[in-house]
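Format notes (please read before filing issues)

Several people have asked whether sequences and structure tokens are stored in separate files. They are not. Every record keeps both together, in the order shown below: the sequence lines, then the token lines. Line labels are part of the format and must not be stripped during preprocessing.
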Amino acid sequence: AAAASCRWSGAGGSAGGGNSIGGASESDTSFVSGKPGPLGSPGSHHPGVLSHASASTSSLGASTEPPELPPIGGSIFLLNVVTLLFGTNQVLIKTLESDDAVASAMDYNLCMSLRFGIATIALGSAILGGKAWQMAQGSASTEVEDRQVDTKEEDDRVNASVVTGGAELSVWLYVGFLAQAIGLQYTTASAGALLGSLTVVVVPLLSLADGRRVDIRTWASVGCAMLGTLLFVGPEAVSGALSGVGDGLELLSAFFFAVQMWRCEKIARNLPEDKIAELTCFQLGMVTLFSCAGLASQGWSFDALYTLMSGWPVGQWEQVAVMGLVTTAFCLWAEARALRDVDAPSAALIYACEPLWGAGFAWLWRGEAPSGTLAICGGLCLVLASGMGALASQRIGTDDEGKLEAASMSP
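Then the structure lines:
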């Protein structure tokens, strides 16, 4: 249970608005108009869907074949892969930031500085490499020559959205990690896991406050996820929860992570797909700066850090590298990409299985394993809630398909 604390202790997620659970609101006309709303507006939905719908309506019924939908099945698969990888991250963080570390317990700001710094360098290098390859092929120069004034203005708007959106998401991510790391020093791991799972509740509440309908099936899934987490971590988590300042900080952490996921959905859906990597990279870089500032505020000097890290064995560096490259750079990009197609409440439900993956890797890596009938029943509830979240996403995709068919056949 200690190693299976909620998804948020090992990664950052992303958060935003878009389609409503069970279908978009009746007032949404952006599917027909093909014009996305401003950054973060409730009328901003799938960019891919909007462009297809606009093209269909402009043809004035020339083709009755509905446009191709965004690959929501692939996005659901991405979220499940991310859930598995976040589960492994729980074990790595517990190992690095506790006395079980190979060398010594790592400060949480130092751990975040390294993992997010490595992730920033890796993703930034990939972005620059991709652009260099495009220029070598000659496609980039051709696009620049053919660019119109209005396109240049749109590029400037998109780049500004990448900067402002990435900066905002990085704040939610860092304060969530900070509250969680400090809170876990004053509460038990099981209580932290239970309180951290409240993110699953907060995300649909934020969507509801945003004017989007959240149907009864989603709330039933949320209840199933909470029951599963409670049974999985054990009854002692209830008695230990809400008993001190550490539990209050864990609640704040769950709220901050939920806001980040909710906002990331909105931001990602207002950006072209090829800008998602840049959005993620900017977010990673900002969290790296915040973490370095945290180290400086704690009195760490460069010489002291160099002396400490030079004594680390290769195994400890390997763990940090895996966290930076896989469970940070890849996972945060994949999550932001998937949130373009999957609503944040549904994504949060898919993440419900993360404690199971965390427990599985804790058993393989550290010999820890939950035991008892309650843990098994809790695991089954988590699997059920995760599956219901995936079905909710597919149901939304079906609703979008009906809207696209109507838009493509209308004069």
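For reference, the curators noted about this record: The radius of gyration is 22 Å. The chain is about 70% helix and 0% strand.
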